[in-house]
Amino acid sequence: MIIKVVLGFVVGILSSGSGLGGGFLVVPFLIYMGKPAKVAVATSILFVGMVAVSSLWAHSKLGNVDLKTGLILAAGGVLGAQLGPQILQNISDQNFKRGFAVLLIGTGIWLFMQAKS
Q: For the whole prediction, is pTM greater than 0.85?
Protein backbone atom coordinates (compact mmCIF):
# COMPACT_ATOMS: atom_id res chain seq x y z
CA MET A 1 0.00 0.00 0.00
CA ILE A 2 2.83 2.41 0.83
CA ILE A 3 4.34 1.89 -2.63
CA LYS A 4 1.00 2.80 -4.25
CA VAL A 5 0.70 5.98 -2.17
CA VAL A 6 4.29 7.03 -2.97
CA LEU A 7 3.77 6.30 -6.68
CA GLY A 8 0.54 8.32 -6.60
CA PHE A 9 2.34 11.22 -4.94
CA VAL A 10 5.21 11.23 -7.45
CA VAL A 11 2.90 10.84 -10.45
CA GLY A 12 0.68 13.62 -9.05
CA ILE A 13 3.65 15.99 -9.01
CA LEU A 14 4.73 14.95 -12.52
CA SER A 15 1.17 15.16 -13.88
CA SER A 16 0.33 18.56 -12.48
CA GLY A 17 3.68 19.93 -13.58
CA SER A 18 3.72 18.49 -17.09
CA GLY A 19 0.11 18.03 -18.16
CA LEU A 20 0.80 14.43 -19.15
CA GLY A 21 -1.97 13.00 -17.00
CA GLY A 22 -0.01 10.25 -15.31
CA GLY A 23 -1.64 7.31 -17.04
CA PHE A 24 1.58 6.65 -18.92
CA LEU A 25 3.15 5.73 -15.56
CA VAL A 26 0.17 4.31 -13.69
CA VAL A 27 -0.97 1.82 -16.37
CA PRO A 28 2.40 0.01 -16.62
CA PHE A 29 2.69 -0.03 -12.82
CA LEU A 30 -0.78 -1.58 -12.43
CA ILE A 31 -0.03 -4.16 -15.14
CA TYR A 32 3.20 -4.96 -13.30
CA MET A 33 1.11 -5.42 -10.13
CA GLY A 34 -0.87 -8.11 -11.97
CA LYS A 35 -3.95 -6.15 -13.08
CA PRO A 36 -5.42 -6.98 -16.51
CA ALA A 37 -4.97 -4.18 -19.06
CA LYS A 38 -8.67 -3.21 -19.02
CA VAL A 39 -8.64 -2.88 -15.21
CA ALA A 40 -5.31 -1.01 -15.28
CA VAL A 41 -6.66 1.50 -17.81
CA ALA A 42 -9.95 2.08 -15.97
CA THR A 43 -8.22 2.39 -12.58
CA SER A 44 -5.70 4.79 -14.08
CA ILE A 45 -8.55 6.93 -15.41
CA LEU A 46 -10.00 7.20 -11.90
CA PHE A 47 -6.60 8.26 -10.59
CA VAL A 48 -5.95 10.70 -13.43
CA GLY A 49 -9.43 12.24 -13.11
CA MET A 50 -8.97 12.95 -9.42
CA VAL A 51 -5.45 14.30 -9.91
CA ALA A 52 -6.68 16.43 -12.84
CA VAL A 53 -9.40 18.06 -10.72
CA SER A 54 -6.90 18.87 -7.99
CA SER A 55 -4.35 20.16 -10.52
CA LEU A 56 -6.99 22.25 -12.30
CA TRP A 57 -7.87 23.91 -9.01
CA ALA A 58 -4.19 24.66 -8.23
CA HIS A 59 -3.48 26.00 -11.74
CA SER A 60 -6.69 28.08 -11.69
CA LYS A 61 -5.54 29.82 -8.51
CA LEU A 62 -2.35 30.77 -10.38
CA GLY A 63 -4.25 32.02 -13.45
CA ASN A 64 -2.82 29.36 -15.76
CA VAL A 65 -6.07 28.03 -17.26
CA ASP A 66 -7.31 28.92 -20.76
CA LEU A 67 -10.95 28.03 -20.06
CA LYS A 68 -12.23 28.43 -23.63
CA THR A 69 -9.56 26.22 -25.19
CA GLY A 70 -9.88 23.67 -22.40
CA LEU A 71 -13.64 23.38 -22.84
CA ILE A 72 -13.36 23.04 -26.62
CA LEU A 73 -10.78 20.25 -26.22
CA ALA A 74 -12.92 18.63 -23.53
CA ALA A 75 -15.95 18.50 -25.84
CA GLY A 76 -14.06 16.30 -28.28
CA GLY A 77 -12.44 14.36 -25.47
CA VAL A 78 -15.75 13.53 -23.81
CA LEU A 79 -17.10 12.19 -27.10
CA GLY A 80 -13.94 10.20 -27.83
CA ALA A 81 -13.90 8.80 -24.30
CA GLN A 82 -17.11 6.96 -25.06
CA LEU A 83 -15.44 5.07 -27.92
CA GLY A 84 -12.16 4.18 -26.20
CA PRO A 85 -13.55 1.54 -23.80
CA GLN A 86 -15.44 -0.10 -26.65
CA ILE A 87 -12.23 -0.41 -28.65
CA LEU A 88 -10.30 -1.67 -25.60
CA GLN A 89 -12.96 -4.35 -25.01
CA ASN A 90 -11.94 -5.97 -28.32
CA ILE A 91 -8.16 -5.89 -27.82
CA SER A 92 -6.21 -8.62 -26.03
CA ASP A 93 -3.96 -7.70 -23.11
CA GLN A 94 -0.92 -8.69 -25.17
CA ASN A 95 -1.87 -6.44 -28.09
CA PHE A 96 -2.72 -3.59 -25.71
CA LYS A 97 0.71 -3.83 -24.08
CA ARG A 98 2.43 -3.81 -27.46
CA GLY A 99 0.41 -0.86 -28.74
CA PHE A 100 0.88 1.09 -25.50
CA ALA A 101 4.64 0.45 -25.65
CA VAL A 102 4.79 1.74 -29.23
CA LEU A 103 2.82 4.84 -28.20
CA LEU A 104 5.16 5.54 -25.28
CA ILE A 105 8.29 5.01 -27.37
CA GLY A 106 6.92 7.18 -30.18
CA THR A 107 5.98 9.92 -27.75
CA GLY A 108 9.42 9.76 -26.15
CA ILE A 109 11.15 10.06 -29.53
CA TRP A 110 8.92 12.96 -30.53
CA LEU A 111 9.59 14.82 -27.25
CA PHE A 112 13.32 14.19 -27.58
CA MET A 113 13.36 15.56 -31.13
CA GLN A 114 11.31 18.61 -30.09
CA ALA A 115 13.78 19.38 -27.32
CA LYS A 116 16.64 19.57 -29.85
CA SER A 117 14.95 22.22 -32.01
A: no
